[in-house]
Amino acid sequence: MLRNTALFLSLSASTVLAQTTVNILRPEVPANEKAYYDQVVSEFEKTHAGVDIAFEYLANEAYKQKLSTLLQSDAKPDLIYSWAGGVLAQQAEAGVLQDITAVMSPEWADSLSAASLAAFTVDGKVYGIPTNANEVVFWTNTDLANKAGIDLGAIKTWDDFLAGVKKAKEAGITPILAGGKDKWPLHFYYGYLMVREAGKDGLAAAIAGEGDGFASAPFVKAGEDFKALLDLEPFQPGFMDTTFEQATGMFGDGKGIFHLMGDWDYGTAKQNSATGKGIPDEKMVTIRFPTVAGGAGQATDTFGGINGFAVVSGAKPEAVEFLKYLSNKENQAKAGAEGLFIPVTKGADERMSNPFFKQMSAALVASSFHQIFLDQALGSDVGATINDAAADIAQGAATPEEAAKTVQDAWSVR
Fold first, then answer.
1. Which of 46, 54, 217, 319 has its CA 20 to 30 A from that of 166?
2. Which region is the signal sequence (predicted)?
3. Residues 357, 343: one domain?
4. Hey, what's the torsion of the CAs at 384, 390, 394, 397, to 10 degrees?
5. pLDDT tens digits for range 175-197
6. DSSP-derived 3-state class of residue 373
7. In the 8-state DSSP scheme, what is residue 384?
8. pLDDT > 70: percent of the chain
9. Which of residues 14 and 252 earns the better pLDDT score?
């Protein structure tokens, strides 16, 4: 009898201890965003007995490098952070993502902005859930800009911006900080200039393979615009040996006037600065990316991301349940209120308090064309090529014509 009781207690203990662990992999985020995820996880686990949600964070480049191999292994996570676009489509086509369309209720789908959900939809099938959108802007140190005599309010065009860079150089102040080693921060210049020069229709035509595609005149002109900036030597010394993480910390330390980056730079620049506090909000502004003379793009066109989490093939059902909880209006509104990111769930922006994020949110709402980061939108191989092309122009290793042809060649054989 005692042995049977002991067996029963042993089995009961095993049942109690049995857990379902949902593993989530994403790039590194500031401490306050981690605290937000911890809180959401804690609340979710209270109502889902036996479920553990485990986040793992990797540095941005390490995440990208590890992901492809990991998705083919037995150690693959249940959810991965995604910038959507062509990379998501490639992953779906490769069978490494899970179609969750059938388990998505109409109410859940309708709670998300149509554009954001479309970014995670491939051929009518949903493979993930968006959580935030972002616009790339120039984060700007107003103290340094004033010392250089730059009228920030007057910067509307690319020529205006170049004039500001020249003033900074004349004042002996580093105009721009850049993490060139990671290449994708340089693609922000090249890509945004493509949006300004080619516009929505020009980009659509290039993607459709019409004419000379990405080697056509607007894309060559985008490279020439970028080179006009580079000819001024606008970046800090050794920018090609500087990572994104280092560059954002340097901006937080007041080492330069401008840093072209998305909304995530707000928290990252503070955390990566020497003090951990960065530039006070009252000494910082954001500037929309300038227009270009004669460009087909509209001033309201935006360049950035629609980001969220993709569901990996074979993921546990609880992973989708967690995504539903994470993306509900209350949790999204909490993130917006805490200034962590710009939420995409309908109505969740009502409690946003961060003035920079409110400006970006308004710009995204006003935009009739939002181009997802080109290194994501064009797929992993072509995306890597466009990052390389931007770095080659920055180092003088390729002319704008050569860079444009390289991108088109990669697109044509993808």
1. 217
2. 1-18
3. yes
4. 70
5. 999 999 999 999 999 999 999 99
6. coil
7. H
8. 96
9. 252
